[in-house]
């Protein structure tokens, strides 16, 4: 460390000097007249060099660079980039992932070394002000954390800051009863019926269902083999189809590589149908939750249901295997039938 002179006068601020990984000497001002501040800055720079991060490279790294890292990572691993419909004004729709529309304007041209926990808390407050749910806020933060973890693994930054996460209390518990589902189908166009029935009976994700092509369907249309590239847990699975769904698919013309299910105007038609069926809060994803519950009620073992739905851990599966009030009532009725009456009826006249 040293202090520079100018016009024979000693400047107040302390300067530091060190060598980066390329053997180049780096000098810079600590912007402080306090020697201990300069010492801390020098130690931090030396730690970065020790951890194998080229200081100059780390200094120039911007948010857009780690965003591109994530996009490339997703493409290389066959992860679908368009997970939700982006804003109509976006030109780079092919590179869209839910969360980019919140992160891009907030971190535009921001140096990655300036992304720290205090800044992340400000982002969190900004997202909440925009009326995002706790879960949505966490998904946006997790997306940025994934970018920074990739940069750390690639040796571009020395560490990832602590990410503040919110408690999620908005886990959905919605599901569709069979009677309600049949009513919903009445208000949906017939060409959407195979897709909706498939989602309801298998618990498959809509994103995976829309990637199913005819070469994945067995010749007798009784099973569909999903490759690991489109399943959530990256493991291939074979799904059996109900007889009515098999009959419906047999009537369709098979074209190799073409999608099996027609999803034209899916969201628009779904929104109209759920209102007409008097279930306005119903989400398409609730069909997946209902599929898990229906299989469980039919006596299918949990391990089989988890394989069908692609749930890798039981903790995640439990979130989908919703127990309805009538399930609890039926369970208690079965228990009473087995045990009989446990309490003697009260005698007339009350307690003596």
Can you give me a brief rundown of this structure?
By secondary structure, the protein is mostly helical. The protein has helices spanning 35-50, 55-60, 63-76, 100-106, 117-129, 134-153, 178-186, 193-202, 206-209, 243-250, 266-276, 286-297, 302-309, 314-320, 325-339; strands spanning 2-6, 9-19, 25-29, 223-226, 237-240. β2 and β3 form a beta hairpin.
Overall number of strands: 5
Helical percentage: 40-55%
Q: Uncertain runs with pLDDT below 50, 5 residues or more?
A: 82-93
Question: Going across the major beta sheet, what is the strand order?
Answer: 1-2-3
The percentage of residues in β strands lies in 5-15%
Can you give keywords for this protein?
single chain, 352 residues, DNA polymerase, domain 1, hpI Integrase, Chain A, 3 domains, three-stranded antiparallel beta sheet
